[in-house]
Amino acid sequence: MEIKLLVDAGEMKPSPALSQKIGPLGLNLGKIISEVNKATAPFKGIKVPVILDINTRTKEFTIKVGTPPTSELLKKEFSLEKGSPQPDKIKVANAAMEQIIKIAKMKEQDMIVNDFKNAVKSVVGSCNSMGILIEGKEPKVVMEEIEKGVYDDLIKARKDTPSKEKLERLAAEFELIKKKQEGLVKELGKKTEEKPAKTQTAE
In DSSP terms, which residues pair with 3 in a beta bridge? Predict the structure, then answer.
């Protein structure tokens, strides 16, 4: 039988829900947690899907580790806690196309796509919903450029490591963008703080 889980990579811990699934099968929960943590260690810091394939007769099991959701991989790549609360207005990162290709390579096998270019486009779509710029541009613009073949050489070569100079340039560009949107971020923070107060007044 198969048990599907979504776990904190390398840091899976016992939980009542897990005990309910594993307990009745007479398996060693500690051993399962140890083995899952070992298998998911390369993705530490993000959540990953795991399938436990259990032989109920022999009590033996195998672990299949899936790739994390694209959003989790993007958060790890750019050291983000979460995506943007307003993706169209507030940007949280400025990616190099090579970084998008890197994530597309990790996700390609899990995607229902017929070629690698479409895998890249899928990651670009996730950037759009998270407020991540690519090469200093809106993901929608980059999507159009991909269609026109602007990044064909990079995509065909599957180049996934941007130069140090490029990363420094994109980081400098993003610092300017962050300064421009500081007021909007503060305004959004104020609105978030005011909401509970308004609720209390209404009561």
Answer: 52
Angle, helix 139-148 to helix 116-130, in steps of 10 degrees? 160
Per-residue confidence of the chain (203 residues) as pLDDT tens digits? 888 888 888 898 888 888 888 888 888 888 999 999 999 888 888 888 899 998 888 888 899 988 888 998 999 999 999 999 999 999 999 999 999 999 999 888 777 777 899 999 999 999 999 999 999 999 999 999 999 999 999 999 999 999 999 999 999 999 999 998 887 777 766 665 555 444 443 33
Query: Which residues have a Cβ under 8 Å from the Cβ of 72 and sit 6 or more positions away?
Result: 46, 47, 48
Q: CA 66 to CA 48: how far, in whole Å?
A: 6
